[in-house]
Amino acid sequence: MPAFFLSTLASWLGILLLIGLFGSCALPGDFGAVVAGNAHFRKGNYEAAAAAYLSVHTASWRSAVDYDLANAWALLGEAKAAEGLYAIAAKEGDARLARDSWYNLGILRLEKGRWEDSWAAFREALRIDPRDAEARKGLEIAWRAWKKEASSAPTLPVPAAASNLRGISENLELLRRLETGSWHPGSSESSASSSKDW
User: Fold this and answer.
1) How far is residue 122's CA from residue 113's CA, in Å, rounded to a whole number?
2) Residue 1 maps to a domain
């Protein structure tokens, strides 16, 4: 009889735990929305990913969803929207999410030619994790571009930004830290190594 009693008690505790976890009506739907958003993101369908992330209402997931949504907005060219969401995720997320948000904010600002702001964002990422080699590389790229612009003759901001980005666009592709896990070392061919590249 005691074994039956313990087994029944364990079953009821399991049921109560599930009710507690899924007691909120929004939670299962929100979990599905995040999973769908991540799947769309991995496939490169950033509009559908953004729509899925926007449908999430669970407050405890907000900073992570803001980060995911910011990644989608950034890849859709919506820099202002992405920048605001990265700032929120950096402020409200855990240390890893804050570091990654500052890092992506640095990349976004670097792509826009905002060298000093980019440098400051990479600096924040390094303050959180001083061993982050990619953030250190981004910091150096932003510093060089910032100092190069400061030492050159005054020019229009957009052409100056575009000319400073030449030669570092390949670095930007490798540097952007997204949650897809789609980039793996050695998985891309160098354009110079392909004999069929015209």
Assistant:
1) 14
2) no
In a domain, 14, yes or no: no
Assess contact for 72 and 41: CB atoms under 8 A: yes
> pLDDT tens, 50-72?
999 999 988 888 889 999 999 99
149-176 pLDDT, tens digit each: 777 655 555 444 555 555 555 555 555 5
Contact, 123 vs 139, CB < 8 A?
Answer: yes
Its sign, for the CA torsion 91, 41, 45, 173, is positive
Q: Which amino acid is at 90?
A: A
Sign of CA dihedral 98, 99, 100, 103: positive
Q: Which CATH number do you get for residue 33?
A: 1.25.40
> Do 100 and 171 sit in the same domain of this protein?
yes
Count of structural domains within the chain? 2
DSSP classification of residue 153: P
pTM value > 0.70: no
